[in-house]
Write a sequence for this structure.
């Protein structure tokens, strides 16, 4: 029984540690919304400037990632 | 009458000589984009303006010989800027592609990255150009204007208007981004709001390598893949 308890404690500690190490820090929902809106507007503006959909999408993705992480 | 025959014969020999003397070379193009500025300045419009400004900083090369060509970004100028956001966006706007064309088999292979994956897309070189009488000088070369209309697709809902300025003085059918099939090399190209302008032309030996690393796919399947991915992001 003691061995089982010890194993559970070690496993719990391990999972807690790995989740702290590898989980992405949570971004606030407001930031996500603002960045999505920015990306969508860039997408629309690019389309209005006669950029094709694939390019507009790629550019908006770059803007979204920049907005979220930098 | 004899004199006319002599002139025609001399011109013919001269033309043959110029065709035979061109073995290989490199064209360097700069890129500009006519961005439609919005009246209201927003973060989105600023982002696009800065990206368009970043376009000025790089060039594309077209290495060619009589039958093959390779169009690619000149990375020597931009090695320190590859992580810059505006630069990355500018590169997408300019067309972040490497295009190999083989006129003998009328095929092109385009390498491009989409959402982190490299693709090698095969296309057939069939362009229905209309050559006009409009001319202009680009450097020392007299160029003729040719027009091309690309029909609307899902990825190009407004279609595409392409204008090429080519010269009969270099009778090779190459051009930037795989545009080919004209009776002379393309020295300037306008593709919707993007303009590729000649910066330098040199005749030298160029090694032309076929792009190899990437998922091999035909254009139709690639377009379906892109369409599906864009829909997943709920942009529509």
């Amino acid at each position: 029984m003691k061995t089982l308890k010890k194993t559970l404690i070690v496993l719990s500690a391990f999972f807690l540690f790995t989740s702290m190490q590898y989980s992405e820090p949570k971004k606030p929902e407001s930031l996500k919304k603002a960045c999505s809106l920015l990306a969508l507007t860039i997408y629309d503006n690019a389309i209005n400037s006669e950029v094709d959909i694939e390019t507009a999408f790629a550019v908006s993705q770059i803007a979204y990632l920049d907005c979220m992480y930098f | 009458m004899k004199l006319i025959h002599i002139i025609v014969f001399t011109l013919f020999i001269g033309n043959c000589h110029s065709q035979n003397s061109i073995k290989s070379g490199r064209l360097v193009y700069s890129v500009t984009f006519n961005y439609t500025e919005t009246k209201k300045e927003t973060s989105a419009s600023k982002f696009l303006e800065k990206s368009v400004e970043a376009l000025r900083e790089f060039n594309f090369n077209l290495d060619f010989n009589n039958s093959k060509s390779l169009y690619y970004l000149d990375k020597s100028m931009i090695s320190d800027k590859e992580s810059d956001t505006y630069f990355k966006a500018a590169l997408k706007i300019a067309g972040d592609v490497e295009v190999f064309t083989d006129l003998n088999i009328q095929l092109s292979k385009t390498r491009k990255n989409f959402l982190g994956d490299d693709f090698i897309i095969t296309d057939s070189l069939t362009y229905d150009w209309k050559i006009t009488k409009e001319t202009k000088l680009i450097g020392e070369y007299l160029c003729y204007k040719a027009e091309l209309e690309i029909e609307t697709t899902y990825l190009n809902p407004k279609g595409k208007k392409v204008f090429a300025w080519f010269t009969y003085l270099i009778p090779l059918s190459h051009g930037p981004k795989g545009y080919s099939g004209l009776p002379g090399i393309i020295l300037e190209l306008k593709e919707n709001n993007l303009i590729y302008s000649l910066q330098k032309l040199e005749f030298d030996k160029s090694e032309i390598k076929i792009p190899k690393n990437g998922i091999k796919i035909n254009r139709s399947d690639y377009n379906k893949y892109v369409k599906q991915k864009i829909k997943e992001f709920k942009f529509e």
